[in-house]
Amino acid sequence: MSFTTAMKRGFAPMARIAGQSTLLKTTPRLVLSLRCQSTAAGGTIGSQNSLNKSELPFTYSAQGPQDVKYTKDHEWLAVHADGTGFLGITDYAAAALGDTTYVELPDTDLTVEAEESVGSVESVKSASEVYMPVDGTITEVNTDLESSPQLVNTDPLGKGWMIKFKIDEAKGKEQVEALFDLEQYQEFLKTDEH
Questions:
Q1: Do 139 and 162 touch, CB atoms closer than 8 A?
Q2: Which residues are CB-neighbours of 118 under 8 A, at least 6 positions away?
Q3: How far apart are CA 30 and CA 160, in angstroms?
Q4: What is the pLDDT of residues 112-153, one digit of tens each?
Q5: Per DSSP, what are the bridge partners of residue 163?
Q6: How much is the pLDDT for 183?
Q7: Element (H, E) at 128
Q8: Long-range Cβ contact pairs of 5-12 (< 8 A, separation 24 or more)
Q9: CA distance 107 to 70
Q10: Which of 14, 118, 172, 185 could form a disulfide with 167 if both were Cys (CB 3.0 to 4.6 A apart)?
Q11: Cα dihedral angle (15, 16, 18, 19), rounded to 10 degrees?
Q12: Are 80 and 61 in contact (CB under 8 A)?
C-alpha cells in the first residue's frame, strides 16, 4: 500500500524520536479497509484464524481456553476458566498490515476498559492501534515482541500474542459473549468491506 493510499484509509505515518514511535497525527480506530489473501498455509481469508494449540494462549491452562473470540477490529481473545485472557491480532490483520517492524505494548498492572487502546503495531505498510475488547487488568505483555516483532506475522495466534490480562468479573463475561466466534468472524470477513 502506498503512502497516499494509507493516508486516504486513515492510517497515520510513524516517526522515530529517540527510539520511540510517535504518531504524526491522531490515528483513528483500526478498521482494515483493504481486501487481501493471507499468505499463510491454506491461503484463504480467515482460514488461519484458529488459535495455535502449541503456544501459551492455548496451553496456559491444562484444558485450554474456554472460549476464543474475535472482534470487528480483527483482534482475537482467548479466555481461560480462571478469568485470564490473552489478546492479539488475527491472521487476516497481520497479513493486511504486512511485515511488522515494531510493536508498542502497555504497562502491566494497568486497568483498561473495553475499546481502550492498549498498544499499536507498526509495519512497512502502516500503523494501527490495538484495542482491548473487554474490561480488565493487564498482568503481562509479550516481551518477545520487542526483539522479534515479526512473530505477529509468522504466528499471530500463538507466539505473536500481545497481552495477558485478568478479565473484569463484573462486566467481562457479558462483553466476551458479545464478540464473534470463529464462524461469525469468518462470515464477517466475507461480508464486511475491508
A1: no
A2: 87, 105, 106, 110, 112, 130, 131, 132, 138, 162, 163
A3: 18
A4: 999 999 999 999 888 899 999 999 999 999 999 999 999 999
A5: 87, 141
A6: 94
A7: strand 127-131
A8: 6/125, 6/126, 9/33, 9/34, 9/126, 11/125, 11/126, 11/127, 11/128, 12/127
A9: 23
A10: 172
A11: 150
A12: yes
CA-closest candidate to residue 78, choices 100, 56, 95: 56
pLDDT tens for each residue of 27-64: 444 444 333 333 333 334 445 788 999 999 999 999 99
Amino acid sitting at position 115? E
C-alpha cell at 36: 487481501
pLDDT score recorded for residue 48: 79
- CA distance linking residue 85 with residue 60, whole number of Å: 10
Q: Is 191 helix (H, G, I), strand (E, B) or coil?
A: helix
| Cα-only R_g, the chain | 16
Q: For residue 71, give the C-alpha cell.
A: 472482534
Q: How far apart are CA 37 and CA 79, in angstroms?
A: 28
State yes or no: pLDDT of 155 exceeds 50: yes
**Residue type for position 188:** F
Q: H-helix or E-strand containing 20? A: strand 20-23
What are the cell numbers at 151?
512473530
